[in-house]
Amino acid sequence: MDEARNSRSRISRRGSSRHGSGARLWLAGGWLLLALLAAIFAPLVAPQDPLAQDLMFERLPPFWMSGSEPGFWLGTDSLGRDLLSRLIFGARIAFIVAFAAALAACLVGSTLGLISGYFGGWADRIISRIVDVWMAFPPVLFAILLVAVLGTGLSSVIIAIAVIDWTRFCRVIRAESMGQARMDYVENARIAGYGRIGIMLREVLPNVVPSIMALLSLEMGIAVIVEAILSFVNLSISTDDPTWGGIIAEGRLSIHQAWWVLVFPLVTLILTVLSFSQFGEGLKARFDPVLR
Amino acid sequence: MNATRPCLDIRSLSTVLPNGARVLRSVSLSVQPSEVRALVGESGAGKTMIGKAVLGVLPLSVRIVEGDMLLEGEDLGRLQPKARRTLIGARTALIPQDPLTALNPSRRIGPQMTDRLVRILGWSGQRADLRIRQLLDEVQIRDPDRVLKCYPHELSGGMRQRVLIAAAFAAEPRLIVADEPTTALDVTVQKQILRLIAQLQREHGTAILFVTHDLGVVAKISQKVSVLYAGKVVEEAETAALFAAPQHPYTRALMAATPRYTDPFASLKPVDEAVLAGLASEIAAADQAWKRSHG
Ligand SMILES: Nc1ncnc2c1ncn2[C@@H]1O[C@H](COP(=O)(O)OP(=O)(O)O)[C@@H](O)[C@H]1O
Ligand SMILES: [Mg+2]
């Protein structure tokens, strides 16, 4: 009896958005903060030089297995480079790409989506048609094509992701602004003498900001994946700087001798991507006054 | 000769949809200063559309093809869009049907209410705040500090409507369009809100175009009535005269269809077939005449 009541209250508590979003927000935010700090202070926190090769130390296992060496916590790859240090330095590129690409996509997509949804009419028709055409391209193929044209390098990866993914913002924000534009408070603001652009920015925008934040966070996760995919197919950063995708590609080659070179970067990648999407959802739940 | 200039004068207003259908059929009605004019009709008759036309917020798909609207003698159709917006913003206000969607869900009540006074009347924020508190007192909100800090969804429907009534009267408009302001509320709250609107109307001397489908409300609040059917005004009269001696068969049918407490079921008659047939031919004739004169 008591047991049943307890479990029911636990379920209902988890179901309520406040508590659910709280735990989600803190766990995901915690991991992201940790990864971000590691990225920023990489030279200070990385135990080894991520590029230093040492054939004496090749394919060392992680610290809890026999044959491991102190100072190489997650082991080494087939060239004897410290895996943890490479992951930490790889986080730098991952976060730079995540922030820059997602912000660019967000700025372009949200602006066009807001205009399209609020003004409607021919502005909406033109923007929606462009989005339709854009989305007809398979995204990964599109990215590879773009990078092939722009040339490899950090900035072309960022541009490619922004160019492809602004449509995600545009579609969602368009639909939401369209719903808001039909609300009576928008009409009320017009009666009170506000101009169209003023209403768009003052009345409609605040109502779509929670969604913009959620999408932005989700997009950062997606940018991390796309960057990893491009690195994996060797189309990302052409220098020796370690990237998560590049480490995964190398790890795949030595999976039978050193599984950790594949597994740790994969886990890091998945944790980061999940955290971005959960963090976004949590933010939305927290900042949406209606959901709150 | 009309001694007083009407606050609102709509002359032969017609609107059409993109498919060519006429929604408002040469509607004429006027509201004198400090007068409550009820606009009554069944759902879909075009009551809201008249209100939106007056307030200049018709949907883009609806086109005005005929008629003039004069707000305190100013012909709205002749004004530049910007001047029209300013005029409408300064002299009119809306008490909406649904108090939830009429407030911005992501902004607090306070700024939503004061913004307007600052923007339309150019008041200082402090003066606007004082004015809003005064109005909140008039609508019997006793804890203005809390309410002004709330988001709309944190208030009950009745409270939200009080806030909107306060906001509507705050800028001292000459004309308020009240579009079924009690329809979305609980029955018990409806009466209070109605009484509140009537009281503020008297105290502020504001003219109101009061849209409703409820003849009981008409009797309580208005001095004059226009009965609308399918976008056509079928009868217009002083409220007392209309109830004493309704002229149009549709008005009589509407009265017969209004439930009475003494005998709720016996009086609930649907509108008679013959009346509807008569209305249909009346409207067809009006449309014919309109087509002839407007090609
Ligand atoms: N945006 C619109 N587009 C097309 N038709 C509309 C629009 N708004 C209202 N109508 C039509 O105009 C008529 C009058 O509507 P409305 O003024 O809302 O009626 P009421 O307020 O009396 O219930 C209805 O038949 C409705 O279908
Ligand atoms: Mg209506």
Largest sheet of chain B: 6 strands, mixed
Bound molecules: adenosine-5'-diphosphate, magnesium ion
**pLDDT < 50 runs, ≥5 residues of chain A:** 1-17
Strand percentage of chain A lies at under 5%
The total count of helices of chain A amounts to 11
Percent in helix of chain A = over 70%
**Strands of the biggest beta sheet of chain B: in what spatial order?**
6-7-8-3-9-10
N-to-C CA distance of chain A: 32 Å
Largest beta-sheet details of chain A? none
Overall average pLDDT of chain A: 87
Please provide a written account of the structure:
The complex is a heterodimer of chains A (292) and B (295). The longest helix of chain A has 37 residues, at 83-119. Chain A is mainly α and 292 residues long. Chain A has helices spanning 2-15, 17-40, 42-45, 83-119, 121-135, 139-150, 154-181, 184-191, 196-232, 244-253, 260-287. Chain A contains 11 helices and no strands. Residues 1-17 of chain A have low confidence and may be disordered. With 295 residues, chain B is of the alpha/beta class. Chain B has 11 helices and 10 strands. Chain B has a 6-stranded mixed beta sheet with strand order 6-7-8-3-9-10, with helices on both faces. In chain B, strands 2-1-4-5 form a 4-stranded antiparallel beta sheet, with helices on one face. In chain B, strand 1 and strand 2 form a beta hairpin. The longest helix of chain B has 22 residues, at 273-294. Classes of the chains: A mainly alpha (292), B alpha/beta (295). The A-B interface holds A 120-121, 183-185, 187-188, 190-195, 203, 206-207, 209, 288-290 and B 52, 55-57, 60, 85-86, 88-90, 92-94, 96-98, 101-107, 116, 119-120, 151, 153. The site of magnesium ion (MG) has 3 residues of chain B, from helix 1.
